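seq:
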Amino acid sequence: MGGWKRSVVGILVVAMLVAALVGAASGQAQRVRITEVHTGTLFMAPVYIAEAAGFMGEEGIDLELTEVDSGALGIAALVSGQAQFFDADPFQAVQLRRQGRQILFIYNLTKRVTLDMVMHPEVARARNISRNMPIAQRFAALRGMKLGITRPGAATDVYMRYYLKRAGLNPDRDVQIVSIGGGAGLLAALRSRQIDAFHLSAPTPYLAERDGYGVVVIKSSAGDVPELDNFMYTGIAVYNIYANRNGDVLRRWTKAVNRANRLMRQDQAAAITRLRKYFPRTDPALLALALREIIPALSEDGTMNEEMMEKHLQFMLDDGQISLKPSAKEGLLWTNRYIVK
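struct:
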């Protein structure tokens, strides 16, 4: 009888241990590997920090961040399945929808367009251009200039042409738009006076300003262009199918990024330390300046709203980029469903 009791007790102990292990395993999130392609801009700061600070790892996510030279390459990686996440813009989402491919914004990076225009100081002085001028006058003062862009059709091209048309200028006749390539090429072209100005997100314009061959004259990141404020400029997108199948993964990702977002705003010194992993050749003092400049343009928690998307879709319609405007309502191109604050 005593042996039988001991056997029963032993079985119960084993059963309890097994139950505890199963419970622990079910409570622990499954570890996943995610490839996220990006264009190397500072508006990705919360994502960079989330990975570098280990917040992604704590959520069971092994995040591989891969930089590409253009949004077109990022979309190609997403479409081919080489990546699951990409920092896209609504125009790319609408283009893919036309092709029968549905991507969904699951996190908003920016509250407005973040392109800041830097001009050679000699040009700015000769034309008396500064941020003290009304924005319409700054746009009009671009007449006759050589303006650098990354490539035709890129955001640097689209918004440059918008500025010119706002001033009643013909982008193909009243200025010379020069396709240069990435940030390093634009900086070299400005320094050597091959171009008079260019615009890009931080930190690139501030490199020119720091080294004395540039002065920032239009700061969209600070709201200099009101109609491009409260504007869905760039967000993190995934395929709809991926979102539907991996809701828990997306929630863990947004939780890690929002944790980084709070750190970035509360302790910028710690944020800079983490960001240096992705900007190793940038002077920490310049990186700190660039971060301070761009934070006002960044979303605090990744949430989106219908008005933000509507403004961008209307911008595309007015600019002739699209002929039919899709709905801006939640669920079609964007959702806050996966955001964990």
